[in-house]
Amino acid sequence: MSGTARIDSVDALRMFRTVLVKFAENVGVALGDAEGEMARVLVWLETEASTYWNGQIRKRHDHVEKCKEAVRQKKLFKSPTGSTQSAVEEEKALRMALKKEEEAVEKLKNVKRYIPRLQKEISLYKGGVQRLATTVSSDIPLAVSRLDKMTQALEAYAALGVSGGGADDSGELFQRMARAMGEMEGPPPTDFKPLRLKTAGLDRKTAVPGDVRLEVWSDGLITEKERELFAKIDSEKKPPAPDATIYVENEAWTSQKIYLERVNADEGDSGWFIGRADGAAPGEGILSMPVADLLQSRQDLREALGLPAGFLILIEGTGVTTVLDDKGKDVWSSIPK
After folding, report:
1. What total of structural domains would you count in the chain?
2. pTM of the model
3. DSSP of 223-237, one letter per residue?
4. Phi, psi for 222 (deg, rounded to 5)
5. Is residue 1 part of a domain?
6. Does 170 fall in a domain?
7. What is the 3-state secondary structure (H, E, C) of 172-200?
């Protein structure tokens, strides 16, 4: 049996990648459209429909009162001949007005009844498509990345067969294949021990008052969706007081990778420290400031700062990537996205 494989083309992988990306885009658009339409209908029921039928009830009630008055007036005053006047037409108009008023009342009852029913159906729908949404947002991009690395590895292998096999060329090609195959296995797990040690070695007494409200931060920030996910973390939330002190490594805002860690601290100290996590040389000095001042620059951190002591949060260019609890367990990866 031959010790080599015949690879003429990797176009099939490229075509599959294109189809996979297109599928993810179409599904993402469809899910977004469906969720947007459901939200639009729910808002319509809660606002426009309720307001409209409340207004209709008032208008139709006023019309009923006018019809009742017309009937009363018709029966109260006698005709020129002294006989009681017929109120058949007025009574007919009153019956129609009462029917329309009852219709408006029933419509409002239906609106109020369907609001919680629609909310429940929306919740069931979101639960039903959660796995698909996760696949589209996480699994498919990961698969595309792996396909790219597979393509690189196969191209390197095919080039090795075509090159004819000089020792130098073969060595370089084998190195390319090894790198590509190694990347397919994914990056090694991050070692958070240096970050923990960095926080533990912080001398808070040397911090100087600082102000970062006008600084532009370079990390990915925390998205609105990620802010909602912090509420799902199973831990007792302990938001720091607005006037509590928070410590920030100087020039941390220039890093595309930062971390936040909270430790047990004295009264008036939030326990939080924000530092660089990119391995670059630390900035000179540590800055201290009230939590309220920091939040003026970083509103996205509000929910994250509610986590208790022992938690560590890593934020990169794509947003939050890791949240470690006080036992070192990554609780972020286990939250349903």
Report:
1. 2
2. 0.48
3. -HHHHHHGGGSSS--
4. -100, 125
5. no
6. no
7. HHHHHHHHHHHHHCCCCCCCCHHHHHHHH
